[in-house]
Design goal:
Blueprint (H helix, E strand, L loop, with lengths): L1 E3 H15 L5 E5 L6 E3 L2 H17 L6 E9 L2 E8 L21 H7 L5 H11 L4 E6 L3 E9 L2 H7 L1
Parallel strand pairs: 2-4
Antiparallel strand pairs: 1-3, 4-5, 5-7, 6-7
The protein binds adenosine-5'-triphosphate and magnesium ion.
The site of magnesium ion has 5 residues, from helix 2.
Length: 158
Amino acid sequence: GWVNFTKFFDHIIDRFEMTIEEHITFQRDIPSRSYYVDIDEDKITQVLYNIISNAIKYSPEGGKISFRIKEQPEKIVVSISDQGVGIPKNNLSKIFERFYRVDKARARNLGGTGLGLAIAKEMVEAHDGEIWAESKEGKGTTIFFTLPYEQEQEDEWS
Ligand code: ATP
Ligand code: MG
């Protein structure tokens, strides 16, 4: 159904913010305007949950997690950035594969199955969106995904 993505995203971030430890800080760079997108709310909640859990899991002590929405023609670009360990360049495309985990030894300590991002990719693509990652080792990671958004639909709402 049609959802005001700005509000929806803000609400999900609020829920995470209540549960995180004090050493992690959240920063929002979200426009105040509304973006109406036609999504399955449960599925996109799962996408955000999987991405944000990783950002928290791989964040260092005192790390900042940034949340953004950027508008592009016919789509919004949603991104979540952390200041964690990062991902080596040649592993970057593989993190969306099922059961793939960078550095198995390190990953084992943190727990998980390597499915979170594969599920996120499947769900984003089912919404005609794209998902990708940018990362610098030792600096941090940003996960981006897009959702189609129609300006015309918007006009009917206002
Ligand atoms: P699961 O999500 O199933 O609990 P997981 O977190 O290991 O397990 P994914 O979420 O699919 O699996 O992520 C795959 C791998 O990509 C991770 O094991 C980790 O190596 C790497 N990765 C994902 N997000 C980040 C991040 N924000 N910073 C650093 N590495 C990451
Ligand atoms: Mg995960």
